[in-house]
Write a structure and sequence with these properties.
Layout lengths: L1 H15 L8 E15 L11 E15 L3 E13 L13 E14 L8 E9 L21 E9 L5 E11 L5 H5 L7 E2 L3 E11 L9 E11 L11 E11 L6 E14 L11 E15 L6 E10 L9 E2 L27 E10 L5 E11 L6 E2 L4 E2 L8 E13 L5 E12 L1 H6 L9 E11 L1
Parallel strand pairs: 13-15
Antiparallel strand pairs: 1-2, 1-22, 2-3, 3-4, 4-5, 5-6, 6-7, 7-8, 7-9, 9-10, 10-11, 11-12, 12-13, 13-14, 14-16, 16-17, 17-20, 18-19, 20-21, 21-22
Length: about 450
């Protein structure tokens, strides 16, 4: 916390030295959000019975400075109510009155093209790039992830983007379940033993107007080490990937294809006594292709296949699970929070999605997935089950997720509600044979957002 406060003082002093020819301006944005969720059962290990949660999140974002130098401060207050011992709450649900962002943003000279413009952002900040599958400022989760470090962004007249950043993640506190349920206050802090770096280039319309809108190439690095007080898996990952995307447009085909391969090393256990490291070899693939029909509701129908590798031999000398580190999952897979059985790790999910995008103040989405484990011997990540023998098979089940949103003309109010159904498959029923709950899981939520 001291680091953040000193950084904020430095940032404020920096703005005071902004060029006198630039007028100083204060900008403010904020958001109030309330959401109620209910599930009729549980699919996680050791959980039973129905569950409910009432969540509140407040964001206040101040930006002060000139055209060349700005200081930003964003406050986050996230609280939950109605939860109990069976609620799968964690530090991603509660974060009382903390600093989400505290940064200085400086206009600087571009590295690639003279006609472009570039900014360097230093301090505590949120990061979202491209599809947000590799790193994201989460929107649906009640607590947003933040990082401390530097983020360089360059853009040119063609809308190409170059992102280069080096950051450490923020450890969201508190972590104890009783403290989370009690909405206890505790300052977040930097995780100095973890380092994230990336180079991500986004090329806008690289070929012709009929080609993809975006072609992207990226390299992400992640390095983690033990500290004096805390052990770790000593993960060292390098993830490289490509993406091609053509967004939804009436009477046109749309697609989104992203592939990433990860290599590196890690320890098998989170322990101070390190053994021989495991070689890492993992991958993910998202393939989505659809067509938008010229109908009053502007209907888009798309096929989707999502694969994130799993560990084929948990006792072997290679780690093959594609861990979800800092990217999102709700947009591609399912409604999350106390639900969300699918995550892009040890997953093979094939399905269909239908989106309604009328020229009006509402939209809707329905998504079906036939979900399997990528490896029968690796873990069902969200459910926290694992059958290392593989005898339970791979079929997780059928998932059906929906969302409908309404907003006013100025988009200052948004009403968002949705429902999900998880029909348990042969694997999920087999590993839950001794559990009280083996029925299918229905989930629903209602959310109201007010921009201020």
């Amino acid at each position: 916390m001291k680091t953040t406060l000193f950084a904020l003082l430095f940032l404020m002093c920096t703005v005071s030295f902004a060029q006198k020819t630039d007028s100083l301006k204060l900008d403010f944005q904020g958001e109030l959000r309330a959401r109620y969720e209910h599930s009729n059962g549980q699919f996680r290990a050791g959980k039973s019975g129905s569950d409910q949660l009432l969540l509140f999140r407040t964001l206040l974002h101040f930006r002060y400075g000139s055209k060349k130098v700005k200081v930003g401060l964003e406050l986050q207050d996230s609280r939950t109510y109605l939860g109990d011992g069976n609620s799968p709450v964690s530090s991603s649900f509660t974060n009382v009155a903390d600093i989400l962002q505290g940064y200085v943003e400086v206009k600087t000279k571009p590295l690639l093209r003279k006609e472009g413009e570039a900014t360097l952002k230093l301090g505590r900040q949120t990061v979202s790039v491209g599809s947000k599958r590799q790193i994201e400022r989460v929107s649906y989760a009640n607590v947003i992830k933040a990082y401390t470090g530097g983020h360089y962004l360059e853009q040119n007249h063609k809308k190409d983007e170059l992102h280069v950043f080096y950051v450490v993640p923020i450890d969201r506190l508190p972590k104890e379940k009783s403290q989370v349920l009690g909405n206890e206050f505790m300052w977040d802090r930097e995780m100095w033993n973890q380092h994230i770096w990336a180079v991500h280039y986004r090329n806008h319309r690289p070929f012709t107007d009929r080609g993809p809108k975006w072609a992207e190439a990226f390299v992400y690095g992640f390095d983690e080490q033990d500290t004096f007080r805390k052990s770790s898996s000593n993960r060292f990952y390098v993830t490289t990937g490509l993406r091609l995307q053509e967004p939804i447009k009436e009477n046109r085909f749309n697609y989104d294809v992203e592939f990433a391969y990860r290599c590196g090393s890690r320890q098998a256990e989170n322990d101070f006594i390190d053994g021989a490291p495991l070689a890492v070899s993992a991958h993910m693939l998202l393939f989505r292709a659809g067509y938008t029909f010229s109908l009053p509701l502007k209907v888009n129908v798309a096929f989707q296949h999502y694969v994130a590798s799993g560990d084929k031999d948990p006792s072997g000398d290679e780690f093959q699970q594609f861990e979800r580190l800092f990217g999102g999952r709700r947009t591609d897979l399912n409604n999350t929070s106390i639900h969300g059985p699918l995550t892009p790790s040890n997953l093979s999910a094939t399905g269909l999605r239908v989106e309604l995008l009328p020229e009006a103040r509402w939209d809707a989405r329905v998504h079906y997935s036939y979900a399997n484990l990528a490896s029968a011997t690796d873990a069902f990540i969200i459910g926290k089950y694992q059958d290392t023998s593989g005898a339970s098979g791979r079929f997780l089940g059928h998932t059906l997720d929906s969302r409908v949103r309404f907003w006013n003309q100025k988009k200052t109010w948004t009403l968002d509600f949705g429902a999900s159904l998880f029909i348990l498959g042969s694997y999920t029923r087999a590993v839950r044979v001794n559990e009280n709950e083996t029925r299918n899981i229905a989930h629903g939520y209602l959310q109201v957002i007010k921009k201020i």
